[in-house]
Amino acid sequence: MIFKPVILKIAFLLFLNAMVFSCESGNKNSNLQRAKVNINNDWQYLENNTEHIGDAQKETHWKKINLPHSWNALDATDITPGYRRSASWYKKDLNIPNIISGQIYQLYFEGVNIESEVYVNGEKVGGHTGGYIGFLVDITKAISTGNNEILVRVDNTYNPEVIPSQKSDFFIFGGITRDVWLETLPSDYLSNLKITTPKVSNSNAEIQATVVVNSSNISNLKVKASLLDADGTSIKSSLFDISDSMSEINFKSIVNPKLWDIDHPNLYTLAVQLVEDNIVKDEISDRVGFRWFEFKDYGAFYLNGKRLLLRGTHRHEEHAGVGAAMSNKQHRADMELIKDMGANFVRLAHYPQDPEIYKACDELGLLVWDELPWCRGGLGNDAWKLNTKNMLEEIIEQNYNHPSIILWSLGNEIYWLPDFENGDNRENINVYLKELNDYAHKLDPSRKTAIRKYYEGADIVDVFSPSIWSGWYSGSYKSYQKAIDQYKKEYPHFLHAEYGGSSHLGRHTENPITGEGKIQSDGWEEAIVQTDVANIAQIGDWSENYIVDLFDWHLRISENDSTFVGNVQWAFKDFGTPLRPENAIPYMNQKGLVDRTGKPKDAFYVFKSYWGKDPFAYIESHTWTERQGPKGKSRDISVYSNCPEVELFLNGKSLGVKRRDTKIFPASGLNWTLNFNEGENNLKAIGKISNSKEVIDSLKINYRYAKNEKARALKLSYKLLNNGNYLVTAKAIDAKGLRCLDYEERVYFQCLNGGEALISQGTPTGSEIIEMANGQASIEIKRHSKDKPLQVMVLNQNFKGTYLTIN
Ligand code: ADA
Asked: Among residues 216, 265, 387, 778, which one has the fewest Cβ atoms lying within 10 Å of its Cβ?
């Protein structure tokens, strides 16, 4: 009998209910077979690094938590240098009222950072070396009817034998940072379903899959496999033999398959049953996407026979307030926003990510570069080599069936900043890299391997990205075409990963520094010691305006180059890093297109204007509403939009219609020169989609002719937010009370009484230390009680303290 997914889903939910019911309430269900139940809730956490389970068990100061959890959720991005790199314990009482003999019980951890030991009822049952990837622990022998004490020791202590290197530009968050499941399996069960699609064309496709059969007696067993379409209709079904605990499934001539691509991510389901005389003993399934791809030699990338420009960005797995311990909702939201912006490719930097991410990429139509976390640190000792190779195997084995994945990356800047003596020796690195590359191909001949910024290994892998940071770490963005032209000739499969630069939300300037005359315009390679070369990263002001221009220039080039594989912007979202204490938001890498909560900066709209499907118009900039300039001085206004035509109005008067042309810089020609009135100005942009449809964006700008003088004081004001918190804003003002638009110094917020500041969020309104943006900075404050006044202070070296009381 073949289940349709809908029925399957209902059956699974019923099963799940039965399982939860039986686990939590003691109901007996003797038919219990395969089930998977999430056990994220009701854990306890002990911040104690003891190695002895007995010591942990004696402790009474456990804190109630739910998973996912990281003890570095806030301490990584607080203002104190360093973050807790140590061990902690997690505990859960798992009630299993009815243990069915012969059944297998296991825990599935989606990812525990970065080393772990798992105990059940005091007995060590498993563990894992390396975070960012899932692992199973068989607990069958250790459990008993009733309550079972699960204890997990989790350790993110500095350990150079476990990748990634701590010299990487991101935090290695400690904790059980992903979901945990209790799985039960029948005594005869299926595992390791690996699906390939060796032949795919528009008219025909073939499936080859293998599944492991776990049984002590296979004599009467068969495997029944069925291919279901998106509606759950079976389009192929067959019985297959088992030999050597393995069954090979093969469906030839799947006629007119609905292909998986970025616009139509069509998915099928391969459902596999273990049967004995028509009795289903176990069933597993996974999804299949039919697609093929090619990196043409010295040419473009092709998906399903059609040229596709890879429009990419990078994702780090972390978020304000929770660090790496993101909920599935937050994971999904990241990917939906990336898709909404119009990207079709995402590099998972610099480690494999939550299962929710691959699921989202399969469903949304995002191609994936999946990465082994060999990030910096060079080559390590034998233990390091073993751990690293194991991890590559685990990544490929676990993520194998996702049609979205096209590349297995072996690492990033692997030679750099060695953690072991002689670890940067290129000959030794190449021997090991070749070993990894061959292994990746052996495990998965259907995909390509890749690496970024390790030139000596460019010939070893299939796809290579050199380092090009035109206009940021080196040179001018205007040299981008030159850079890609050079590498197009040099590397047969060249994909450009990482470009961009930092921007501080709300910082704007009438004249962004371009570095012209100050920097060597032709450079593009990131210098190892940044202070050795003049570059915008060092001399620039991190304004949103500059970064908008940089991206606009890059996109104009890539969108108009017919032989380019594509590029991958660094990085989608601002993220925490131990390497950048001095940044405008301390410990934040601010190269994101959105802030650490996912709020778009201007640069997001530049990308959306080139790539996005839903019509929109965005006047640059909604975070630049206070401007200044002498009377008579004209200003340029850009509108980022994907509409074919946009008309701009100033104070009700049309400034004309402009046609969008991606060959024109900036803003694809949607750029107007105008003169603001002194005081309030109203801008309106109307994007025309067709004769009847349009999109509108409006913006109020306060413009003044008077230039502010030197800052004389900080002034505080507040507004009540929808969530009941207060947004307290500090403004630097001159002697006349004018806001000092050029004031960019750091300010320090403190809530003195009546509430608490939402600090350590790594966001523009959630950092107690932050650089001003155009003479302004804000902090969100939570009030404890309406009966007591709230007192907030802001200060820095120049101004010794300004106080605000909210009664
Ligand atoms: C490197 C590195 C990234 C990131 C980036 C940056 O290229 O690969 O991890 O840190 O630099 O922001 O400078």
From this structure: 216
- Tell me how far apart the alpha carbons of residues 741 and 625 are, in angstroms, rounded to a whole number: 11
Q: Which residue puts its alpha carbon closest to atom 4 of ligand 1?
A: 169
* Helix, strand, coil percentages for the chain (3-state, nearest 5): 15, 35, 45
Residues 227, 207 contacting (CB under 8 angstroms):
yes
261 lines ligand 1 (CB under 6 A): no
Residues 6+ apart with CB under 8 A from 14: none
Measured torsion, CA atoms of residues 595, 596, 597, 601, in degrees rounded to the nearest 10: 10
Residues 446, 407: Cα–Cα separation, whole Å? 10
Give the 3-state secondary structure of residue 222.
Answer: strand
304: left (phi over 0), alpha (psi -120 to 50) or beta: left
What is the 133 CA–ligand 1 centroid distance (Å)? 22
Catalytic pick from 183, 356, 413, 620?
413
Classify burial at 157, counting beta carbons within 10 Å of its beta carbon; exposed 0-12, middle 13-18, buried 19 or more. middle
Instruction: Round to whole Å and give the CA distance between 803 and 208.
Output: 70
Sequence letter at residue 500: G
The residues near 301 (Cβ < 8 Å, ≥ 6 apart) are 293, 294, 295, 307, 308, 309, 310, 495, 565, 566
- On whether the CB atoms of residues 553 and 484 are closer than 8 A, the answer is no
Specify the ligand 1 atom closest to the Cα of 589. 12
Q: Sign (positive/negative) of CA torsion 161, 164, 169, 173?
A: negative
CA torsion 272-276-281-282 (nearest 10°) is -10
Query: Across the strands, what pairs with 210?
Result: 194, 248
Q: Which atom of ligand 1 is nearest to the CA of 577?
A: 10
Both tokens of 416, joined, read 């750099």
Determine whether the shortest distance from the Cβ of 498 to ligand 1 is under 6 A: yes
Whether the CB of 413 sits within 6 Å of ligand 1? yes
What is the bridge-based pairing of β-strands 746-753 and 802-806?
Answer: unpaired
User: What tokens were used for 69?
Assistant: 């959890």
Kindly state the DSSP code that residue 417 receives in the 8-state scheme. S
Residue in 617, 586, 690, 607 with CA at minimum distance from that of residue 79? 586
Nearest CA to ligand 1 atom 13: 169
Ligand 1 atom with minimal separation from the 452 CA = 8
- Distance (Å, rounded) from C-alpha 330 to C-alpha 344? 20
Distance CA 555, CA 557 (A): 5
CA of 114 relative to ligand 1 center, distance in Å: 21
Residue closest by Cα to atom 3 of ligand 1: 169
State the Cα–Cα distance between residues 242 and 189, nearest whole angstrom. Answer: 13
Asked whether 591 lines ligand 1 (CB < 6 A), one says: yes
Q: What is the mean pLDDT of each run of 10 residues along the chain (807 residues)?
A: 38 36 32 84 98 97 98 96 97 96 96 98 98 98 98 98 97 98 96 98 98 94 98 97 97 97 98 95 97 98 98 98 98 98 98 98 98 98 98 98 98 97 97 98 98 98 97 92 96 98 96 76 66 78 96 98 98 98 97 98 98 98 97 96 98 98 98 98 95 93 97 97 97 98 97 97 98 98 94 94 95
Whether 413 is catalytic: yes
